[in-house]
Amino acid sequence: MAQNKVDVLLVGAGVMSATLGSLLAQLDPSLKIAMVERLSKVAQESTHSLNNAGTGHAGYCELNYTPQQSDGSVRIERALEINGAFEMSLQYWSYLVEQGVLPAPEGFINPICHQSFVWGEADVEFLRKRYAALRRHHLFEEMEYSEDHAVLRRWMPLVMKHRDASQAVAATRVQHGTDVDFGFLTRKLVQSLKKHPAFDLELCHTVVGMKQRDDGRWQVRVKDNRTDQTATIDAGFVFLGAGGGALPLLQKSGIPEARGYGGFPVSGQWLICKNPDVVKRHCSKVYGKAAVGAPPMSVPHLDARIIDGEQALIFGPFASITTKFLKQGSALDLFASLKSSNLGPMLAVARDNPDLARYLISEAFQSHKERVATLRNFYTEAREEDWELASAGQRVQIIKGSEEEGGKLEFGTEIVTARDGTLAALLGASPGASTSVQAMIEVIERCFGPQMKTAGWRRKMKMMIPSYGESLDENVALLHEVRRRALATLRLGGSGRPG
Ligand SMILES: Cc1cc2nc3c(=O)[nH]c(=O)nc-3n(C[C@H](O)[C@H](O)[C@H](O)COP(=O)(O)OP(=O)(O)OC[C@H]3O[C@@H](n4cnc5c(N)ncnc54)[C@H](O)[C@@H]3O)c2cc1C
């Protein structure tokens, strides 16, 4: 190991660790930072371009962020929150592009129109209400809505081709939606960190254990996967940004805050289009409604992507059953995570979610023909031979103890921190990479509280993220200002506000 004593140890080389490392190095370039990754390259798990959908989640098209209530009304709070969080990512990436830390934005972020699409009277009614609720808010002021087949044919020609003219359909669109290549972004963030003399990246090294000393510092045991030799890193602060591997490490840390957490892994699969003529006919992200019993992140979508500068088209995700916590993990992961403190919540979740179990089983055993039939809800002319199945990343959903139900399955992300601020872990995976900047700022606020209160760090935060400390949800003028800058710097929508 190049450094045995560090201020900050980042476990995992995905978008979360890379973002935290980048923010901390900006705030205090003298910090000694090490990043340890078990695989031989950076960003090979969920952050890899083809392991996630690359949607810059901003609440524009994802219908699961605006659930319908039993009285028919539509709640928009989560969409507002996610939109505000994504604006923080856009501001930080803009700053890094302006500083020359990140390369030309086209390499990692591209404007791709975000659309929601539904059919059938009930879902049309839902989308109409969703639009009415969102459109009133300045964060969503550019959203458009239509039920007119002719308009929708212009918005999404592939989806509307040969569609029954009598079918009730509706769509919304936001033209400055984005596609983000999180794999590319992460590689560039890590490359820029490598330019700091106080940064060290150790690939092919797995964190296998950790213990806190009486003085609060962590002794982290790291195994070199090529030689099986172990070494110890002495770290003042540890971030468990290990994706699906964060829960087992959190359990190993032994901090009381880890008690009761369990994980429920869900793997995903995509249909990837192999026919270039079809790929070039679809230029937006079209999100539909999730099937009954489906976990919220299994909303089907037909997605135009830009990966390594090339246009791609994917449909999915199809969920599946797995016991692995990482795509390149072990089938024993789930069983190894069972502890006396989380067994109750895990069993309660198994008991209370029969629809989810039924859904996962039915998804897992679908044939190619059946998957293409689902795709035909979005693209009526889809041919089986144009699409092939590929594995996406793993998500480990959080299971938590709950007084009423005994255990609860959560679909968001959660930051767990030690009371003394020397360790933090990120659990869960939604909305994920898009909100990495806000999530990592939360880690810094919780674990670097005294430094964050200094004038120097506060000034730097404002420089990097002008809306830091303010609410874009409430401040219209500030939203317009930061959005105009981000859209121009990241070349997402011309030089002014779209629309
Ligand atoms: C199917 C799917 C679709 C998604 N779509 C989107 C989307 O459209 N938009 C979006 O914003 N987000 C999306 N996400 C979520 C997003 O991909 C994740 O939130 C994000 O990539 C997580 O980053 P991470 O750094 O926490 O984890 P990861 O990228 O998984 O990185 C964790 C790293 O830690 C390493 N590691 C694990 N254990 C150890 C150990 N013991 N020692 C050393 N290293 C270790 C792993 O090898 C890995 O490289 C999607 C996820 C999935 C699965």
Can you describe this structure?
This protein is of the alpha+beta class and 499 residues long. The protein is built from 16 helices and 19 strands. The chain has helices spanning 15-27, 77-98, 121-135, 149-155, 157-160, 182-194, 246-253, 276-279, 333-336, 340-352, 354-364, 368-375, 436-447, 449-452, 455-464, 476-489, and strands at 5-11, 33-36, 109-111, 113-119, 144-146, 169-174, 178-180, 199-202, 205-212, 218-224, 230-240, 262-273, 284-287, 301-307, 310-321, 387-400, 408-410, 413-417, 423-428. The strands form three sheets. It has a nine-stranded mixed sheet, sandwiched between helices. Strand 18 (413-417) and strand 19 form a beta hairpin. Helix 1 (15-27) packs parallel to helix 6. Flavin-adenine dinucleotide is lined by residues 11-17, 36-39, 44-47, 51-55, 57, 182, 206-207, 241-243, 245, 249, 268, 317, 326, 392-395, 426, 429, 431-434.
